[in-house]
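Need fresh eyes. Consider my entry:
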Amino acid sequence: MPEAQAAGVVPFGARLAAATDDLGPLCVGIDPHAQLLAAWGLADDAAGVREFSLRVVDALGGRVAALKPQAAFYERHGAAGVAALEETIAAARAAGTLTVVDAKRGDIGSTMGAYADAFLGDGSPLAGDAVTVSPYLGFGSLAPAAELAARTGRGLFVLCLTSNPEGPQVQHATTAGGVSVAASVAAQAAALNAGADPMGSVGLVVGATIGDAARATGTDLAAVNGPLLAPGVGAQGAGAAELAAVFGVARRQVLASSSRGVLQAGPDVDGLRAAAASAAREASAALRD
């Protein structure tokens, strides 16, 4: 079970709920991959990644509910790339915008504890407001992260139903008790969020293009009482109809994530802001109206 929250700390779930109410349920991914860097006229190196990321934060900070830097695109450039990630997180914090660090960490024991310290610990330059984690060494292996997140007021997004074609091999598989892995993950997240208001801080990653996978696997997304991070909105094909089909009555918990759909409008600041505003309106119409 998560540890008690430190006095005066506002939980991530409450902060995210307020941000989405104010700015719409949109998270913009910061994915400085080689093609986007080239399209923006930037070199595929740590300096280019840093410039790209800070331009996104400068354009969208304070204008969207959250920003989601993808750690892999920084780590591929070594120490200087990781330093750029740290600077990006700090810039978003200074702009008053929540950050979800998309690192998908998952391990056991002291190693998971070390990942938790890195991405969820107070004072760590890699700690945003939430981090993505993998439960496929067993949901219980995430306990060090869940405990530290609860204590520091940060959040987790646990991989549950992803849109990659290999995902169903694991996520749709059933336990000896006949429950799907995805449904088990969702139920254990729900247990950690029990009683939280307006919602808990342990969310799930559920692809916006998975169709009827939640229903087919018996995964009760509405019962999670936590945020549902939905990659795949915009350039990857998910619109209002797909969001409604995937999430149904759980739509108000969804934080729609768009990366290329917004970033391809850069590097022009006005273009980025217009694309993000349009995406936020579309997400609000699909998920809140």
